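Follow-up to my earlier ticket, as requested here are the two runs.
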Amino acid sequence: MKVLTGKVLVLFVFTLLIGCNKPQTSKTSSNGFTVWDIIEKTEAIAPQGLKGEFVLSIKNSGKQSGRIYLNTQEDYRDRRNITVTLEPSFQQAFKAKHDIDIRSHFEGQKLLVRGEAKRMKVWFFSQGKRTEKYYFQTHIVVKKLDQISIL
């Protein structure tokens, strides 16, 4: 019985250690940051931003007010989401160089994005007027073609 108890204890400790280990499947940027690292760091240094090269897997996109938004989560309001904002200047340069839809080109892709990740306040609107409610998102604004590439 003592041998079985020792084996069970060893198995328990081994399982506990594995369960506490940080997952190694997180995508990291060339500077070693995971998506969650980027979010945490931008919160810590807000309102300043975090400059660098970031590896992001794009799961969804949207368009509003002339900007295209590439999101790392299906739901752009997800706390774990980082949004890549494609400004009109980027869109015009992209369309001049490529004859393809921007959103479908980047959705489902793993990207290298060069720029500044910043925590942004996003306000809720009701009947066309801004309310007092808001939430935060992490954005990287892309204005030039050389800021983004598919890996």
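Run two:
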Amino acid sequence: MKSLAVLPVALLLAVAASSPAAEVEITSEPSHHLILQNQYVRVFQVEVAPHAATLMHRHGHDYIFVTLGASEVSNEVAGKPPVTLKLQDGEVRATDGGFVHIARNLAATPFRNITIELLQDDKARTSPPPKWDDDRSLQVLHGGTQQVLFVKDGVRVSETELQVAGSVPKHRHTRPHLVIAITDLTFRSDVVGKGASNVEMKSGEIKWVEGDLTHTITNVGNADAKFVTFEF
């Protein structure tokens, strides 16, 4: 009688193990922490512990993620074989939405990134936004570089690296933009008509800036600075 009683439990466990994991919305996934939402984006701080995994979660929008620290991740999309990603600190990747997956951290260190959902992706596909003058470029600055990485759904993504005392010359932002610090940084922003102020950001911090802004940026910290900018 004892073996007969155990058998149904064993069968239930086998069925549970073979059943697909229930999916959750990204806002209900414990490793994803919503830190900003507006008409353009939802921004999540993501951290997955060493050798841990997210829940199966849905990405309903196109998104871009910025890796914070080198890591190795298994991207397990439902219905597809797992793909191993070896990611470098500061690496920026764009992904089309419309899928569910598990992100499994294969490394002995936390997998950290900033995930930026592009909420106007459908609009960009049906009514393409005006093109940028440059969608791929590299500009050598005074003590640094600024590189346009790509344009996704009308959003231009660029990476800026500034040595100590390096600067980005006066430039105008007609559209709002999002800044993500890859390194800890302190820079002075000299805004035309408003004067200068210092901005301090830790690695992984974000800053949303409205448009209609003309300024110069100078690295006034004591180390090289690196950040990524999303222009909408």
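The only thing I checked on run two: The two ends are 68 Å apart (CA to CA). Let me know what else you need.
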